[in-house]
Amino acid sequence: MPSAAPGAALIRFEAAAKTYADGTVAVGGLDLEVREHELLTLVGPSGSGKSTLLRMVNRLVEPTAGRVVLDGQDVMSQDPVLLRRGIGYVIQNVGLFPHRTVAQNIATVPGLLGWDRRRTQDRVRELLRLVGLDPAVHGPRYPHELSGGQRQRVGVARALAANPRVMLMDEPFGAVDPEGRRALQTEFRRIHDELGTTVLLVTHDIDEAVLLGDRVAVFSQGGRLEQVDTPVRVLTRPATAFVEQFIGGARAVRLLSLATLAPADLAPRPTASATPAPGGALRVGDTLERCFAALAASPDGVVPVESAAGEPLGTLTLAGLHAALRRSAQADAGDVATPRAG
Ligand code: ADP
After folding, report:
1. pTM, whole model, 2 decimals?
2. Which helix (H) or strand (E) holds 178?
3. What confidence tens digit (pLDDT) does each residue in 42-55 have?
């Protein structure tokens, strides 16, 4: 569960538009609100204006029409250097300073803000631990001594250093190999839940968008906003033909990674003992993806399910999984924002 529920709008795009000098319409004039504490993913094909929209927030791109309002103030009325110090920014290849150690990289913004040495060192250590690195081992290293995934973690730590209210992330996990990427995504989701920083994250990957986002904004060419909604609703109720096509045929499979098992999905425990799932018994609250894997590995298609305390609750069958999927799609139909299972 998010540590803080999404609240009032922190960022507002008001008829925001960007036409580049060569006449390319990157963002076609759109209205969008980003709520405080939410993680909003911006997803769409390459060239749909996602990066342009993101960069309007920290003024790396200036709108040609409309406004971008951050915390009640038009960003164009703010000093760009000061504005950027208060906004974390993470890009695909991180852009770590190669001749500075990991610790020095993370200390960049605290240094600019004039934090004293002790406070900065404590913060660097805290952040390295937060992103799963060892301060004593990784702090003194240089970026080239790290793996791609580790560099990306340092990029996230550096962006978080001065406790920004807003983080802008542009394909942050794009350069990480697919296996490492899933681990980073899951970990970043946990970090977001812990810190509650407002995050705008650009990706072209619908799976990443629905896995990470509290809400998902889907874009098409010309910077057109097709839909902004919860992940489950984007998957189960695409607003336009474009969204439907962009999601592709594997909607049910994608729902599996979002929806979780509930007591209502279980059958009573049979007298014959069901075979436990590999990797430990299933529990209520597990993702349906995990349940599906357990069922696939089960010789008889019946898997025991326990409570969090380890008491037997019942069994899961393929019919139960089907019911769970349908329940998840229905349950999200009427809500504006559904809290995610952690
Ligand atoms: P996305 O992030 O969705 O891939 P971008 O925001 O990078 O999309 O680009 C949107 C459109 O604007 C594309 O057609 C791209 O070629 C164009 N574009 C981006 N940056 C510039 C620029 N500096 N000058 C001219 N056109 C640009």
Report:
1. 0.84
2. helix 178-195
3. 999 999 999 999 99
